[in-house]
Amino acid sequence: MEHRDALEHLLFRMADDALIYGHRNSEWTGIAPLLEEDIAFSSIAQDKIGHALALYTLLGDLGHPDPDTLAFTREERQFRCCHLVELPTQDYAIALMRHALFDYAERHRYRLLEQSSYAPLAALAQKVRGEIKYHTFHASTWLRLLGRDGSDESRARMQAALDLLLPYALGIFEPSPFEDELRSSGIFPGEEQLREQWLTEIIPLLEDAGYRIPPLDSIEPCYGGRSGYHTEHLQPLLDEMTAVYRIDPNAEW
Q: 153, 93 in Cβ contact below 8 A?
């Protein structure tokens, strides 16, 4: 297949983001501060795992192993997720701010991919549109409730989360070695265009919700995850995520 390496690299980035982010969101099941939020984060986690499954299935169609093998047997250096999704979220303000920063990027990524020249990916992008719409609605609601309409404490905690996470969020758009090929083939317009569309929406949204935006030109994006260089948090997450699978990889469920 023409442009196979470029396509596979893109699919692995997206699938690994969804898998790890879904696992992080699932950690709030049963312990979120509100019952509705327990349900909401569990639902979003389920959606993300579903997106990962669909993307790993596309990789399977290109000759890679089945989704379970891709999710549970690769080494840390083989993962292509961004650093943002790896971070632990013991603080709910961090969970909510990451939710907003990541899911608005996802919304624009899938919108761009609806026009992809790779038909299976375009079809998947159109299919998940409704789920992403719900995710961003949930995120923007809480940005306002805890920012502009919140208490001094909630605003301070959410602002601190934004200050911490913005370099990691900019790392979502780490350039691919296949940027030119992805653009010229029509598979994907590229990370720079995605970043600009994301900034055009997320900055006014954050400002309207009452947050201060640090000067972007002074922020060093956290790159490395797309090349297999991860934070210290990913390996413990993988160990936990694969614990049951490693007991008996050949078990049938």
A: no
The pTM of this model reads 0.95
| Tokens read off for 251 | 């078990």
Number of domains present in the structure of the chain: 1
pLDDT digits (tens, 9 = 90+) for 130-142: 899 999 999 999 9
> Which CATH number covers residue 204?
1.20.1260.10
- Kindly give, in sequence order, each residue whose CB lies less than 8 Å from that of residue 120, ignoring residues fewer than 6 positions away: 58, 61
What are the pLDDT digits (tens) for 42-94? Answer: 999 999 999 999 999 999 999 999 999 999 999 999 999 999 999 998 799 99
For residue 179, the enclosing domain spans 4-247
Q: Say how many residues make up the chain.
A: 253
Q: Is residue 253 part of a domain?
A: no
